[in-house]
């Protein structure tokens, strides 16, 4: 058995004296594991860093085996990702999220989205909203997608301000007003056409996006599996808060 594909390194666990088990998210093979020999060598160490995109060739005698990876570097982002707190926490969080996907199941759209987020992780004002959108895409891939296109009560596609925790559908401002204490806020940057081009997203909106995705991830994915992403999410959110504060974009109450 053999295939060659591009993959983002999620984690690398040392095995024995010189080898390591690499966990990657590939374009066509999905989340996949494989053994890398001589992982501690001077040539391999810079490649086997989380967030890097690699050209991988996987070989095994039988499909169910761990198999061996041959590795070449394609996009070595780890160096500049280590220079920004949002990026450091972001890589960890993205890896934890992607690990929720079943092993060896192709999700080409998510792979592409992941590479886009990673390419912008050193730019916090861009990376934050991209991570929220990645979490929404992940929920959709797992079968728990949100419908933010129109109001669940009226069918209108404008002035959407809330999300129903029961139906996972958007609700307009007027329709949701009597029940707003029971609804989740829908940040404007997630509503098509609500944000004017060139305007900045503030941290109040970004935090609302993180709260929205965390609710549904916990309900449908991490909660039932007994998993906890709060550690990586808390650190990442705090790093983004600091970056947005420095940019003067905290929003209401900031």
UniProtKB/TrEMBL annotation:
GO terms for cellular component: bacterial nucleoid. This is DNA repair protein RecO. The keyword DNA damage applies. Keywords: DNA damage, DNA recombination, DNA repair. It comes from the Bacteria. Residues 1-70 form the DNA replication/recombination mediator RecO N-terminal domain. Involved in DNA repair and RecF pathway recombination. One of its GO terms (biological process) is DNA recombination. Signal peptide: none annotated.
């Amino acid at each position: 058995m053999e295939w060659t594909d591009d993959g983002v390194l999620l984690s690398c666990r040392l095995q024995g004296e010189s080898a390591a088990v690499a966990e990657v998210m590939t374009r066509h093979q999905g989340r996949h594991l494989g053994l890398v020999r001589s992982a501690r060598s001077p040539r391999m160490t810079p490649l086997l860093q989380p967030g890097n995109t690699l050209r991988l060739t996987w070989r095994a005698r039988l499909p169910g085996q761990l198999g061996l990876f041959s590795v070449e570097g394609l996009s070595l982002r780890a160096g500049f990702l280590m220079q920004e707190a949002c990026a450091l926490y972001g890589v960890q969080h993205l890896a934890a999220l992607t690990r929720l996907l079943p092993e060896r199941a192709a999700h080409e759209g998510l792979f592409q989205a992941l590479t886009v987020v990673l390419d912008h992780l050193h730019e916090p004002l861009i990376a934050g909203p991209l991570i929220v959108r990645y979490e929404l895409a992940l929920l959709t891939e797992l079968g728990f997608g949100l419908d933010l296109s129109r109001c669940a009560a009226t069918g209108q596609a404008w002035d959407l301000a809330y999300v129903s925790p029961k139906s996972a559908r958007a609700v307009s401002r007027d329709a949701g007003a009597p029940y707003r204490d029971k609804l989740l806020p829908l940040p404007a940057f997630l509503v098509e056409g609500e944000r004017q081009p060139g305007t900045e997203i503030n941290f109040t909106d970004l935090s609302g996006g993180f709260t929205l995705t965390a609710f549904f991830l916990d309900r449908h994915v991490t909660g039932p599996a007994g998993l906890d992403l709060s550690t990586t999410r808390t650190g990442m959110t705090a790093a983004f808060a600091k970056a947005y504060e420095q940019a003067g974009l905290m929003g209401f109450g900031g």
